[in-house]
Amino acid sequence: RTGEIVWDDEMPLVLGIPSDYFDGRIETWRGLIHPEDLPAVVTKAEQSLRKDGEYGVRHRVLRPDGTVGWVEARGKVLDGDDGRPARMVGRLWETTETRAAMDSVGRALQHMSDGFLAVDSGGRIMYVNERAQNLLGPSDDLIGRALWELPAVAVPALEARCHTAMADRVATGLDVRSPTDGRWYHLRIIPVPDGLTVYLTDVTDKREMQARRAA
Q1: Are strands 125-128 and 172-177 parallel, antiparallel or unpaired?
Q2: Burial class (CB in 10 A: 0-12, 13-18, 19+), 56
Q3: Could you read off the pLDDT of 162-177 as tens digits, one per residue?
Q4: Other CB atoms closer than 10 Å to residue 175's CB: what's the count?
Q5: What is the pLDDT of residues 111-140, one digit of tens each?
Q6: CB-neighbour burial class of residue 20 (10 A; exposed 0-12, middle 13-18, buried 19+)
Q7: 57 near 72, Cβ under 8 Å?
Q8: Which of 5, 85, 113, 127 gets the most CB atoms within 10 Å of its CB?
Q9: Is the pTM above the cut of 0.70?
């Protein structure tokens, strides 16, 4: 509530700033957040406080020397004796190399004919290629959301399938009909370290052919 931030000794190393740069004030911390990312970070924090829940965000850090790095933060709001939010406790880690690797892979995946999504261990979307955006919506509306919460793929079995794939380390899949274009897509869900990869393949013609054969 006071706006004071307490760091351990590792935080300056993670952020890539001098150990004596930070003075414990929230204003100084906000000054390290890249200006383009600051509104989203502040909004996430305010939402966590209002909902008395968990906080999670990825953003860039603009260091005093002008260099830029990526970090990810996870935290939880804790109440005081009066039942109101009193403080947030959490951790932050550096993800610059991971982000660079994802960007490199992303360039290769961006123009695939299939939709492609990378999902973290909590089911939150980390990356979508161009084809997936055409089907599911702009990346700004998708990143950070749980896959099974998206209206375009909101089928009852999806969340359970994702959790099972991560727990058992076995690929799975199911067909969904997109409200965007009315076509059928097969979601191939493949477990990977720290999450899932999901491929969306148009199977409308295949299903129609199977229906004709069955008839």
Answers
A1: unpaired
A2: middle
A3: 999 999 999 999 998 8
A4: 14
A5: 678 889 889 888 899 888 888 888 888 877
A6: exposed
A7: yes
A8: 127
A9: no
